[in-house]
């Protein structure tokens, strides 16, 4: 394993019907002025908004609402939140939603404490913010594991970039399965595939001996696959849903990355696809992964062959490493079809994109087993059409 220092800052409250008690216990530690951040109308339709407002009132808080945070949150939306924080002397930010809301608030928290533009700070001066408005998250849509880290993916519309920014860690995160049961099934499966993607991308770093982090990762992948199938069989299965929520958290709380070189090249390609199309993240990953992995087979056969056996249960007898690597990619592609995710961009409604522009603006990851060129990324995108 590589050298590492591990510290986990986010307190996690996990379980059924724990939102109210956990939130009341945590809110007592913070000031009176709360920014309540959420997305569209789903939190109101499901009753979650009313319950959260009731809890905040019971805690004696003054609430400022920051609503309408979209999927693929924009830099403009971040600045809208910053204005609310400064205008209302916000003491604490409570994000209620999925990865988009949670990511947006991480950057609001940091930008509100800065006198300069955070995008320029991080991408021109190569510095990170050090002061933040404290935050908590109530997860209503899972998959990204965004509540577990300080990274955020924000779309800068003027620059046509969907890129990572680094803001605040959440002081706590509440993972109450009851708050996720109203998620549309399509969104549940898309989010769960994102968790599988995170696990695979963490696993697929530059070749090295398998370590404990990898073996935990293999178990996480098996768990996600099993519980996606269980959820499709019975969408009301809270046990399966709880497993998927925790798998999403585990994939992004750093445990699987300890002592590791990681990849995330597929995510970088999908992010730029999202910058140009505003597409669903999990669906974009589902289309890209098999195509990208076919390009990586010669360099990644060791990892792919092990995943075939340890995660997908393929019998290795009388098969070469290359055989198993090809079977892994085929099995992953078949699973994507099985669970109803798209296999081409056209199935996502994307019929005309500038593959060259997307490839030119995609970040190339040093941890990827195969050192891709811009031309090869363009080819991968064209093969996904």
The largest sheet has its strands arranged as 1-8-5-4-2-3
What portion of residues belong to β-strands?
Answer: 5-15%
Number of domains: 2
Radius of gyration: 21 Å
Helix content: 40-55%
> What are the low-pLDDT stretches, counting only 5+ consecutive residues below 50?
none
* Shape type: globular
Largest sheet: 6 strands, parallel
Class of the largest domain, according to the CATH hierarchy? Answer: Mainly Alpha
The helix count comes to 14
User: What fold name goes in the CATH topology slot of the largest domain?
Assistant: Dehydroquinate synthase-like, alpha domain
Q: What structural class is derived from the secondary structure elements?
A: alpha/beta
Distance between the termini: 39 Å
Number of extended strands: 8
The H-level CATH homologous superfamily of the largest domain, spelled out, is Dehydroquinate synthase-like - alpha domain
Order of helices and strands: EHEHHEHEHHEEEEHHHHHHHH
The CATH architecture name of the largest domain reads Up-down Bundle
Average pLDDT works out at: 94
């Amino acid at each position: 394993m590589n050298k590492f220092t591990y510290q986990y800052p986010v307190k996690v409250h996990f379980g059924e019907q724990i939102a109210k008690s956990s939130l009341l216990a945590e809110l007592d530690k913070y000031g009176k002025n709360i920014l309540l951040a959420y997305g569209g109308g789903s939190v109101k339709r499901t009753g979650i908004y009313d319950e959260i407002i009731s809890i905040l009132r019971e805690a004696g808080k003054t609430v400022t609402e920051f609503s309408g945070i979209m999927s693929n949150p924009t830099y403009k939306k971040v600045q809208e939140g910053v204005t609310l924080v400064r205008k209302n002397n916000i003491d604490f930010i409570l994000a209620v939603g999925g990865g988009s809301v949670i990511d947006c608030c991480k950057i609001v928290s940091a930008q509100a404490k800065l006198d300069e533009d955070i995008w320029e700070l991080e991408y021109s001066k190569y510095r990170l913010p050090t002061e933040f408005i404290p935050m908590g998250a109530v997860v209503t849509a899972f998959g990204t594991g965004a509540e577990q880290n300080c990274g955020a993916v924000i779309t800068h519309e003027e620059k046509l970039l969907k890129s990572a920014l680094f803001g605040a860690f959440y002081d706590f995160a509440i993972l109450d399965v009851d708050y996720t049961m109203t998620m549309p099934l399509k969104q549940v499966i898309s989010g769960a595939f994102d968790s599988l993607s995170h696990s695979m991308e963490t696993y697929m770093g530059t070749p090295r001996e398998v370590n404990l982090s990898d073996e935990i990762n293999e178990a996480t992948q098996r768990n996600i696959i099993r519980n996606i199938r269980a959820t499709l069989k019975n969408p009301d299965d809270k046990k399966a849903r709880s497993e998927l929520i925790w798998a999403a958290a585990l994939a992004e709380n750093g445990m699987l990355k300890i002592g590791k070189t990681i990849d995330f090249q597929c995510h970088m390609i999908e992010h730029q696809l999202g910058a140009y199309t505003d597409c669903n993240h999990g669906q974009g990953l589902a289309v890209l992964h098999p195509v990208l992995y076919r390009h990586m087979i010669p360099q990644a056969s060791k990892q792919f062959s092990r995943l075939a056996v340890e995660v997908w249960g393929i019998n290795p007898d009388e098969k070469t490493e290359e055989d198993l690597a090809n079977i892994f990619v085929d099995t992953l592609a078949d699973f994507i079809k099985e669970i109803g995710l798209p296999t081409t961009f056209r199935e996502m409604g994307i019929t005309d994109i500038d593959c060259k522009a997307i490839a030119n603006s995609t970040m190339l990851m040093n941890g990827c087993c195969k050192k891709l060129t811009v031309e090869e990324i363009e080819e991968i995108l064209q093969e996904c059409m």
